[in-house]
Amino acid sequence: MKNSIIIFLASIVLLSCKKDVIIPPEPFPELNSIDTTGFLEIHVDNMVGNLPLILGSTNYVSSANDTFNVNIYKYYLSNVQLVSSNGLTYTEVESYYLIDQSNPNSLHLMVKKVPAGSYNSIRFLIGVDAPRNTAGAQTGALDPMNDMFWGWNTGYIMAKMEGHSPQSSEQTNKIVYHIGGFEGKDNALRTVNLTFPNAANCTQNHIPILNLKADLGAWFTSPNFDNFNNSNVITGITAESSAIADNYANMFTVTSVVN
Amino acid sequence: MKQLIYIFFLVQLFSSCSVDPEIKPIIGEDDVKEIVPPGWPAPVYTYSANTLTADGFTLGRTLFYDPILSADNTISCGSCHQQFAAFAHSGHDVSHGINGLLGNRNAPVLQNLNWSPTFMHDGGILNIEVMPLAPITNPVEMNETMTNVVTKLSSSGKYKQLFTKAFGSDLVNSQRIFRAIAQFMGTMYSYNSKYDLVKSGKESFTAQEQSGYNLFVQKCASCHTEPLFTDYQFRNNGLSINVVYNDSGRAHITGAAADRYKFKTPSLRNIEKSEPYMHDGRFTSLNQCLEHYNSGIVASPTLETQLVGGIPLTPQNKADLIAFLKTLTDTKYLTDSRFSDNNF
Fold it and tell me: How many residue pairs from chains A and B have C-beta atoms closer than 8 A?
């Protein structure tokens, strides 16, 4: 493999010697094929307490004993970092994932170009980092078409949940939480640090799986959240929205690391 | 020299008569350039990540004037942003959307936008690229989703060609749409007013214009800073609260009581042509605006301190100021064919 790369590079040098015209270099082989990097797969299980989250008519009970269902549940997971057993940190570039319960594919993330090694913990943001909020038109997970971007007040909705609760006094008993804000005291960015029960071993040929549980029930726990009667629609950047972010910062746990 | 210019225009006239109306004016690379007029600060937005090309500009221009961006294909950006009015909405106090729906703010002028750190009267939008998202998706403006816009454009043969020319493939996505519009709107430069010619020594003010300019520097320029004639800050300029809208302005974005009823200082370039005035379009003449500062300032907790007690202006002062403000009219900009509707 290495030999072929050397031949490839040499041929580029030779080619460029022969001709005056500058030939755009061929794309280099993916770094991960050079035997030093691999992937880490993350499976996210969205739950409410110990029940799997099913969008639609399934009813759940909040810690305040309110009944509710969930129609929309989406949040950003970004800036993934992995800490290896030798203390080094791998930071994924262009690390933006939109977890959308209505799209099963979005619940499986592939962290890319992970240097081969043994990893003991993961760190990521719930939300989209401040610079990317103001960086103009984005694509992929950050495309405003994903309905996670405020057009009138620039910035990403970091996490969104919509559903109904009979305890909500809103029309149609709706409950709506669009949690955003990338700067200031009421910002909704939260960093999550999770330690693995056993190391995840990444090699070129082996993709370990990190199973995460994300408990939507954590959003609606006291003291940061009261009940669906008092707080049924939160869509601005306020102390109230920031308090929900404080709650969802604690919604993740590692279920297992499977090598 | 003058004769030469006349001959030039005559030739233009004849050649435009002979042009098949189906053939659209061709924009060349020389017509689309990123510029910083002499004496101006560095722009906030540059094309470092959004390569400016004639084809990108043309796509943006086509989108700007195409009602396909609205839910019922009736309203384009150009509907409320008319070139002869410096891309404000002449004679309309607030924006008009689909189905005759009314907004609550005056459509602002569009010019020199690459210098603007924020957009909208309340400064809620922080990058020119995503600015069009607000009017496109606003229920009382174009009431459309970007998903629908992408679907509609993707099925158009015309746009397949335009996207391919601009970006190398016929893929339509929101980023390409926004970047193309930013290429068009961002290069709409207005810097050829009489004021600019006076500043560069090519023309001179009349005595009255000069008197008005002196007054302007003394009484207005601390907020309407030259050369862009705005400092882009947010202020309460003492307007009475419009009970129809009860618009809290900047506070709508920041949530701060200290920002209530503050709006962004507008540029005064082309102000002669961009009536009506103020964030809710309540004034229809420059004289009314000046009279507001003279006698109409309403005290309130967030009133701009420089406006406490108003700005005393005699009738002569006002006449002189208006004479000066008219030197900010850039006829070349208002008639520049590069910025006109090409969807005919």
Answer: 68
Domain region containing B252: 194-326
Contact A56, A221 (CB under 8 A): no
Decide: pTM greater than 0.80: yes
Q: Is residue B295 part of a domain?
A: yes
- Domain count across chain B: 2
Identify whether residues B166 and B253 lie together within a single domain. Answer: no
**A153, B130: Cβ pair inside 8 Å?**
no
Residue B116 C-alpha, separation from nearest chain A C-alpha, in angstroms: 14
Average pLDDT over residues B235-239: 98
| DSSP-derived pairing of the beta strands A209-215 and A174-180 | unpaired
Position B336 in a domain: no
**Interatomic CA distance for residues A138 and B174, integer angstroms:** 8
Interchain CB distance below 8 Å, A144 and B130? yes
Q: Is residue A236 less than 8 Å (CB to CB) from chain B? A: yes
Quote the pLDDT of residue B30: 84
- A137 neighbourhood in chain B, CB within 8 Å: 127, 129-130, 174-175, 177-179, 182
Domain boundaries, chain A: 1-34, 37-258
Contact yes or no for B133 and A149 at CB 8 A: yes
Which of B50, B130, B175 lies closest to A154 in CB terms?
B130
Q: What is the 3-state secondary structure (H, E, C) of A124-142?
A: EEECCCHHHHCCCCCCHHH
Same domain, B67 and B182: yes
Q: Residue B161: is its pLDDT beyond 50?
A: yes
pLDDT above 70 coverage of chain B, percent:
92
Distance from the Cα of B174 to chain A's closest Cα (Å) equals 7
- Test B126 with A133 for CB contact under 8 angstroms: yes
Nearest chain B Cα distance for residue A83, angstroms: 32
Cβ atoms of B304 and B237 within 8 Å: the answer is yes
ipTM (interface predicted TM): 0.86
**Considering only CA atoms, which of A109, A120, A128 is closest in space to residue A44?**
A109
* Last residue within a domain, chosen from B128, B155, B189: B189
Same domain for B146 and B204, yes or no, is no
Of B173, B189, B205, the position where a domain reaches its end is B189
Inspect the interface and report whether the beta carbons of A152 and B138 lie closer than 8 Å.
Answer: yes
Helix (H, G, I), strand (E, B) or coil at B100: helix
Residues B61 and B182 in one domain: yes
Contacts of A237 in chain B (CB under 8 A): 255
Q: What is the CATH number for B45?
A: 1.10.760.10
DSSP 8-state secondary structure symbol assigned to residue A238? S
Q: Are residues B167 and B202 in the same domain?
A: no
Give the number of other Cβ atoms within 10 Å of residue A250's Cβ.
Answer: 14
B157 and B203 share one domain: no
Alpha carbon of B197: minimum distance to chain A alpha carbons (Å): 34
Query: Quick check: B125 and B119 in contact, CB under 8 A?
Result: yes
Residue-wise pLDDT tens digits, B217-233: 999 999 999 999 999 99
Supply the pLDDT for residue A252: 98
Q: Are residues B78 and B133 in the same domain?
A: yes
